[in-house]
Amino acid sequence: MIHSIFILNSTGEVIIEKHYRGNTSRTESGAFWNQTAKSARGIPIDAPPFLPTPKGALIHLHRNGLFFLASVLTDTQPLFVTQFLESLADVFVDYFGELNEHAIKDNFITVYELLEEMLDNGFPLTVEPNTLKELITPPSMINRVFESLGADSAKTATMSYASPRTPWRRADVKYAQNEIFVDVIETIHATYSATRRNLSQLLIAGVVKVNSRLSGNPDLAMRIRANAPFDDVALHRCVRLNRYQESGQLAFVPPDGPFKLMTYKIRETNSLNLPIDVQSQIKFDHNACSGSVSISLVPRFASAVAPSLSGASSVPSGSMILSQVMNAAGGKAMGLSEPDSVMDHVSVRIPFGTFVTGCSLSANYGTVQFESTTGTCTWNVGAVPRGKTPSLVGQITLQDGSAAVAANPQILVSFRIPGYSTSGVFVESLDMLPPERYKYYKGLRCITKAGLYEVRT
């Protein structure tokens, strides 16, 4: 299995190393870095994730400028190691709130404690954040004071589990107020062609996150509906796989606290409508060393609906699903306010190139910034009220001789839409099965955001 773990920063420096089966020489990490520099564009992130070595292989994961590098033997399944590296990165985010070089260096002790607990002699042992927090206390100001005094802030007591069949859930969980929240978060990856008449690429990546604060050992059954079939479904290990394969129902005993219940992708997107249409027109006049820019963001939201869990069997694609109470049997109504029907965190980036030396652009919403060293224009729109159309217009200045190097830029759009589901995914029902029976709060929230949302001009 895994012999050693290395964490490298963006310059190839090893900031963390942990060995499980003998010491792997740092020269292997140096060899990895030398190979990544030979990638197609000379950029480390373009390197293949699997790199053969004389004794085995190096498998890496790139995340936020950090490289998680695992040294393994040739008989190891690469995807198994990649999945562990993904879990390791997610645990760091859960513990430190962010994942970067500074977060790793500020929490050296906690990082090594996690690496010691998550792998046993190179084999993954404990990867569930909720379970790890019972063993290793997340860093805080009080913990840092204890560490500076030489005291051990980690919990050393052995965890007791609710059952040998549910090692992800601790025993004797009790809450004065029982509640469970479900977040359906979808990320749109779309590429418009230069004519904007069709989409060169469209993919929706979704994740169902659950925050469970339920007493006892609850057995839940959830049914999720969508207007397009799911692809590449990955389920939390608490889900009973046989039940899901037979009926599509998610039956599970949840871990205590937040966790990812399900991830999926949707590729059959012919019937789906994108929430934002980007209308752009960029023209260059090389004789006058100038150009004109006109960009508009047109919201394409459907009318708002709030389906009940026991109501209609389908929801129109691109529907506005409001934050709502899931009033299934056994659940108790909880008042959640409807979100404003707006886009927020909206921004547009236009990497013109260094042949653009200046610009005079104005927008009816937000602020416009221009970085002259890279020729990149950033339009920070912010929040957009429903029914409004943000627009950016103006002139740009070109350097002499730009005709030989000028190229139409790609427009990169970023946004977030609370209460919106592009694919129409929604939770149809959520029930608690015997023997546990008590009143509990249940809430649903949908969020759509942009991944690689690109418009070619």
TrEMBL record:
Q: Which residues form a coiled coil?
A: none
Q: Does the keyword Zinc apply?
A: no
List the Gene3D superfamilies hit by this protein, alphabetically.
3.30.450.60, Mu homology domain, subdomain B
Q: Does the keyword Transport apply?
A: yes
In what residue span(s) does the MHD domain sit?
A: 177-456
**Listed GO CC annotations:** clathrin adaptor complex; endomembrane system
Task: Provide the GO biological process annotations.
Answer: intracellular protein transport; vesicle-mediated transport
Task: Tell me the superkingdom of the source.
Answer: Eukaryota
Family label: Belongs to the adaptor complexes medium subunit family.
What protein name does the entry list? AP-3 complex subunit mu
